[in-house]
Specification:
The complex is a heterodimer of chains A (120) and B (829). With 120 residues, chain A is mainly alpha-helical. Chain A is 81% helix and 0% strand. In chain A, helix 2 packs antiparallel against helix 3, helix 2 packs across helix 5 and helix 4 crosses helix 5. The longest helix of chain A has 23 residues. Chain B has 23 helices and 34 strands. In chain B, strands 1-34-2-3-10-11-12-13-21-22-26 form an eleven-stranded mixed β-sheet, covered by helices on one side. In chain B, strands 27-6-7-31-32-33 form a six-stranded antiparallel β-sheet. The radius of gyration of chain B is 28 Å and the shape is globular. Chain B starts with a helix and ends with a strand. About 2% of the residues of chain B have low confidence. The chains are: A mainly alpha (120), B alpha+beta (829). At the A-B interface, helix 1, helix 3, helix 4 and helix 5 of A face helix 1, helix 2 and helix 3 of B.
Chain lengths: 120, 829
């Protein structure tokens, strides 16, 4: 499976668990991914995938309803330009995934060295 | 290790911000979550297509068709099913508003917003709003249809709350980090208590006492008279025009300082009423209604116009609906979110609407207690009776107790301690009553007489109920409970609480209520004016009535229109003409001319008079002279009533309202009255001097503040606005500075902060098939991001009305106008 497809699936995994469980599932998925994956860039890519997953949900919302109106209103309420809220909506899961991924990742070592170390 | 430590800190911080509010920022997780948060919530504000849902308690499926104005047409087999479905659809559109209103009445806003709103909660509870609602519910006959409808409605609301997806949570709950509470029938009664305060708690007693403390009782009686000096009553007096009673005002006397504690209570009360929207902008809270008989109608059918004015808010105070139960009910109009049924509307035979009567239905009593610091009993007829105590506990959003009060109750109502004295209040809103039954019964009436019967037991707030039917009958009755007092019967005094002889002795019989049915003049109109000419019936019903300028204008328009069309009715609702301006502009101009010819004129006076003379006395948005007139009127009030030495409290609320303009007009008949003298000057001013000086000063102030008379800053559209705030006063969710046609005392009155105004405009033609039009400032949805949140605002601003769909069955609605269909069916619990 190519890396692109793998991370696309991970992104949709973030989207599906967010839809089904809630936003707090993002660090859990990221931690699990980081723990089991052996990719060199698994933590960084988990952050990107989380942002991408939420972006796909956001696009769905934009298609279904007046998201820009909501962004304008919330932005005015918080004293922020609306685009910053969109950005925050992508940065927030990325930060969750990245930080959880860092904490959960295991050191990746060559299999032989690893076996030797275990037997000693 | 360092990276991991940083990551752990970052994760902790982001999780904290996700779960917990940080300063004013709500928890970010549920807010930003695109599947369940605010973004998804925006998407779920749009209802489309066909939906089927199950809710518990229905006996048969209910079909709800939403038209392109967002109005639900509810088709049910039983009335209780219809009200259950109504609870569901109203909660879907207005859940936050419903809970906010009920919390405001029950004094539980601090559970959302903490100490910032504690004072408002304390005032609500000290007024006994929640106590009264709970008493009413305890006394309610649970077998009545009204009670069962309240229960069914609550069931529908709760069905929505329990079936809501996380994304459906209204944005306001997210911002407050709160969850909806389960709805109970009591919450509907809380709302009624709140409405009773807004419309039925008359502050005339305290206002008059304040004047009494400054200029004595005789002058105070004249400034705030029991009877309007201009009579254009609701119950026609047969004169065919206004009657003027312009006797001379007695001079100001020595102040009566014995009313000090009552005055302190006045200040508290005024602050409370201001929060409730009661004291803003003169008669901007005033309402209009009128009906014409077939003989004066262009179509030969009775016509009815409803135009209730209330505090404006987003979402709107009203929700529009249509309910059909074959063979029993077919009614459309507007109701209050939180209350089952339609308050103002029409069915296949009858149309009705209300204005506030403004009668005096509350009294104050000076009580004698055993221990002023911690009373346990109060004196009555020589012995002490135990006080009821109610401990009021206020909690913040976290559930912590932030304050505790003890509210004491006599048999009359709650007591408040003011300047060391205890005053209790009796108010008709504290009496057992069944308003839900009254309003629900109106929907099924088939004639004017049936409608009037359904309102016989109505208690509070007192309302001028106007009704017309398809047989061409029109009628009005000022319905509600009017207490009968001992002695002279007046309610604008503080009575001795230690004697039961001070108590109400009964209530006015319905047959003595102000009433008119098919009067010879061919029309009926009400605009919060004194309902009956005291020359015909001198029974005390209140005092200090709104000046009848709006009533005079309506009567003038109708008298000059022998054949009124429905479109005329619509245009009258935003008519820019003003009886007040018609009365006062000539006085300014004549005074200016006399001062000038007497050699006391000036270039400034001539210029101001020239500009005012250019005005056609119409408050249209592109006029530049109405602002001058209003500035001159403000100066005139200040200079004339300088004896009252008006103070302003810290919130900017005048601690006394100046006498009504009708009293000023009465005074203007006496050019040398001592009231004209400005005590700050050594000279002895008369009427002409004060009018001329006021005109000059008004002009000078306008030039100083807004530039020359040609400036656009003089445009009426730049001077008066409607300001429609969101319930949380969030600017982004509000619509502010809306220019309007209309000014003080016009039929579309504007005044003060612009937060009150026409809350619903309706015209109904009662022909063989009912035709109706209506609009309110807002939209059906309570979701600020929804396209239906304020979609009606442009047409409301322009004075336009929408045709109201009134189908007999779902198939009668043009498919192009259906935006959504919802089928509700039963679900076992």
């Amino acid at each position: 499976m190519s890396s692109f497809v793998k991370y696309l699936l991970l992104a949709e995994g973030f989207a599906v668990t967010t839809y089904g469980l809630g936003w707090w599932s993002v660090p859990i998925v990221a931690a699990l991914w980081s723990f089991f994956s052996t990719d060199a860039h698994r933590v960084r890519n988990a952050g990107i995938a989380a942002a991408a997953g939420w972006a796909s949900l956001l696009l769905l919302d934009v298609w279904r309803g007046p998201v820009s109106t909501m962004a304008d209103q919330l932005g005015a309420l918080m004293g922020l330009p609306p685009f910053l809220l969109y950005a925050l909506t992508l940065i927030f899961p990325a930060l969750l995934a990245w930080s959880a991924g860092i904490i959960a990742r295991r050191p990746v070592r060559p299999p032989a060295a690893s076996a030797h170390s275990a037997s000693s | 290790m360092i990276v991991r430590g940083i990551a752990a800190l970052a994760l902790a911080a982001v999780l904290y911000a996700g779960f917990r509010p940080v300063g004013p920022v709500p928890p970010l997780g549920p807010l930003l979550d695109p599947a369940n948060g605010a973004w998804a919530g925006a998407a779920s504000t749009t209802f489309r297509g066909v939906q089927s849902l199950s809710i518990p308690g229905l006996t048969k499926p209910v079909r709800v068709v939403f038209d392109d104005r967002g109005v639900p047409h509810i088709f049910a087999d039983t009335e209780l099913d219809a009200y259950r479905a109504l609870g569901f659809v109203v909660a879907r559109d207005r859940l936050f508003q419903m809970e906010a209103q009920t919390r405001a009445a029950s004094g539980r806003l601090s559970e959302w917003a903490g100490k910032r709103v504690l004072e408002a909660d304390r005032e609500a509870r000290s007024l006994g709003l929640a106590w009264a609602a709970e008493r009413k519910l305890a006394a309610y006959d649970t077998t009545t249809f009204g009670y069962r409808a309240l229960v069914a409605y609550a069931g529908g609301v709760n069905a929505w709350i329990t079936s809501m997806r996380p994304r459906d949570l209204p944005i306001e709950y997210r911002l407050l980090n709160a969850r909806p509470i389960a709805w109970e029938p009591l919450h509907s009664l809380y709302f009624l208590s709140r409405m009773s305060m807004t419309l039925g708690l008359n502050d005339a007693t305290m206002k008059r006492l304040r004047a009494q403390s400054i200029v004595g009782a005789a002058a105070a009686d004249a400034l705030f008279p029991l009877n309007s000096p201009i009579q254009e009553p609701i119950q026609p007096n047969g004169l065919g025009g206004p009657r003027f009673d312009f006797s001379e005002l007695p001079p100001p006397g020595a102040g009566d300082k014995s009313v000090a504690s009552a005055l302190r209570l006045q200040e508290k009360l005024l602050a409370t009423l201001a929060r409730g929207g009661r004291t803003d902008g003169g008669d901007a809270l005033g309402s209009n209604n009128w009906a014409v008989s077939p003989s004066r109608s262009s179509t030969g059918n009775a016509l009815l116009a409803g135009d209730p004015h209330l505090e404006l808010s987003l979402p709107s105070v009203w929700y529009e609906m249509h309910i059909v139960v074959p063979g029993k009910l077919d009614v459309a109009g507007v109701g209050f979110p939180g209350m089952p049924g339609i308050a103002i509307g029409f069915n296949r035979d009858v149309a009705w609407t209300f204005t506030n009567t403004g009668s005096d239905v509350s009294d104050y009593y000076a009580e004698t207690v055993d221990d002023s610091a911690s009373p346990t009993s109060y004196k009555l007829d020589g012995s002490y009776r135990p006080l009821d105590k109610r401990t009021e506990v206020y909690r913040d959003a976290g559930g912590s107790i932030i304050a505790t009060d003890t509210v004491y109750y006599t048999h009359r109502g709650p007591m408040q301690k003011v300047d060391g004295s205890w005053l209790s209040m009796r108010w008709t809103a504290y009496e057992p009553s069944t308003e839900p039954d009254n309003f629900l019964a109106l929907a099924a009436t088939r004639s004017v007489d049936q409608w009037l019967d359904a309102m016989r037991s109505y208690v509070v707030p007192t309302q001028n109920g106007l009704v017309a039917d398809r047989d061409g009958n029109i009628a009005i009755r000022s319905s509600g409970m009017y207490p009968v007092r001992p002695g002279d019967g007046r309610g604008d005094v503080v009575r001795d609480g230690s004697s039961s002889a001070s108590d109400w002795t009964g209530q006015l019989q319905v047959e003595r209520y102000p009433f008119a049915r098919n009067p010879v003049q061919g029309f009926i109109a009400s605009a919060n004016q004194q309902p009956v000419d005291p020359a015909q019936n001198s029974a005390y019903m209140g005092s200090d009535w709104y000046s009848p300028w709006r009533a005079m204008r309506i009567a003038s328009l109708l008298r000059s229109s022998p054949k009124v069309t429905p479109n005329d009715m619509r245009k009258f609702q935003t008519d820019p003409g003003s009886a007040r301006a018609q009365a006062f502009v000539p006085l300014f101009l004549a005074a200016g001319a006399r001062e000038d010819s007497a050699g006391r004129g000036s270039e400034a006076l001539r210029e101001a008079a020239r500009l005012l003379a250019e005005w056609d006395k119409r408050y249209v948005v592109d006029n530049r002279r109405a602002a001058l007139f209003e500035a001159a009127m403000v100066e005139l009030g200040r200079r004339t009533w300088d004896e009252l030495a008006v103070a302003t409290d810290t919130a900017g609320i005048p601690s006394i309202r100046l006498p009504e303009a009708q009293t000023l007009l009465r005074l203007a008949q006496y050019g040398e009255s001592v009231w004209w003298d400005d005590r700050k000057t050594p000279a002895r001013e008369n009427r002409d001097a004060i009018f001329a000086a006021s005109l000059v000063a008004g002009h000078a102030k306008l030039v100083k503040d807004k530039g020359p008379a040609t400036s656009d800053a003089w445009l009426w559209s730049k001077n008066r606005h409607a300001n429609i705030h969101h319930l949380l006063r969030i600017p982004a969710f509000s619509s502010l500075r809306i220019p309007l046609q209309g000014g003080p005392s016009t039929l579309n009155p504007s005044g003060g902060s612009g937060t009150s105004g026409a809350s619903w405009r309706m015209v109904v033609e009662l022909g063989p098939e009912i035709r109706a039009w209506g609009v309110y400032p807002g939209g059906q949805s309570g979701a600020p991001a929804s396209s239906r949140y304020r979609d009606r605002l442009p047409r409301w601003t322009m004075g336009q009305l929408d045709p109201i769909l009134f189908p007999r069955k779902p198939e009668d609605i043009d498919r192009k106008r259906v935006i959504s269909t919802l089928t509700l069916s039963s679900r076992s619990r």
